[in-house]
Design goal:
Low-confidence stretches: 1-6
Largest sheet: 3 strands, parallel
Helix content: 10-25%
InterPro entries: LRR_dom_sf
Structural class: alpha/beta
Protein name: Disease resistance protein rpp1
Strand content: 15-25%
Radius of gyration: 12 Å
Shape: globular
Organism: Quercus suber
Distance between the termini: 34 Å
Mean pLDDT: 85
Length: 78
């Protein structure tokens, strides 16, 4: 059962956390290597994004619109 849950994350291509006021940090996303679209717009309390996002080779869209408190991208580069 645990393996099935991990496989589900590996198959994910889309994540939308837009308007989520509870998110403060985007954690390590290395278990989701097929993400193409990551929406984080208007996450008012987001302050940090893990550097693993910079290693998502298939990432095409990354929306950080109005994430005004964002302070650290932890060396995210592409």
């Amino acid at each position: 059962m645990y393996y099935d849950k991990i496989c589900a994350f590996k198959a994910a291509t889309y994540m939308d956390f837009s308007w989520c006021e509870l998110i403060r940090k985007i954690p390590n996303l290395s278990m989701t290597p097929n993400i193409k679209r990551l929406y984080l717009g208007f996450c008012k309390n987001l302050v940090e994004v893990d550097e693993s996002v910079g290693h998502l080779d298939k990432l095409e869209v990354w929306d950080l619109t109005n994430c005004d408190k964002l302070e650290a991208l932890l060396a995210v580069s592409r």
